[in-house]
Request: fold
Amino acid sequence: MDLKNANIDEALRSVLEGSSLTYTIDGKIVTIKKKPKPKAVDNNVVAAELIDVRGKVVGEDGEPLPGASIFVKDSKIATTTNDKGEFILRNVEDKAVILVGYVGYQPEELAVERDLGTIKLVRVTGKLQEVEVTFNTGYERIDRSRSAGSFPSLI
Reply:
């Protein structure tokens, strides 16, 4: 590389050519920094289609589960089922995954389709090992032995 009698602009362009660095000249100040990553979308990547997803959540006995939670994985899109166990999620990417949950039932993970049909959740059977009861006064949390109030008991 021969840089005799080259000005600063020509010298920097020649030195930084082929590197991941770029430069700016502002008066007597020369700033060298990394090149910004291109923001162009790869032509091979197809944009995801947004669809509306419908379905119905029922228990093992076929009874609807009102209030079941429906989430789009890795998203803020969520809803709950109505009194008939039905739900609609709007503007969901067609490659997304849906999580369906209800208290006392095993959660389900499903690939998105326009109509998921009837989703049957299986009841979780297990014995609760321990329950800790605490009382929150708004200022502090008090365990049951230190509280003057009454606590319901489950037998």
Observations:
- Residues 8-16 form the longest helix (9 residues).
